[in-house]
Design brief:
By secondary structure, the chain is an alpha+beta fold. It has three helices and two strands. It has a two-stranded antiparallel ribbon. Helix 1 runs antiparallel to helix 3. The chain is globular and about 45 Å long.
Amino acid sequence: MVWETPDMAVGQLVRVLLEEAAVVVVMGGPLVRPRPAPPLGDHTMVSVLTRGGVYIGSGDSGSMAADARGGPMIQAASELLKLLVQRSNQANPGGR
């Protein structure tokens, strides 16, 4: 999804997501091996791309949601995506 319309609510959620992603970066280290395959089943992976490399966290979805680093980032990303889909549906009620 590409979002180009100025929207204070969207901007605030983007800031929250970036703040939570910064916590993941500060508490971890960049990926030094090949990027893992996408998660399967009830597993979740979060990736943060920075100038210093890619930072990844992964695990079963319940553990990731409860994790002090991954949980807030997943929550922030979910809230942002929910709002973007809602705004998109309002702008294009027929899905076009």
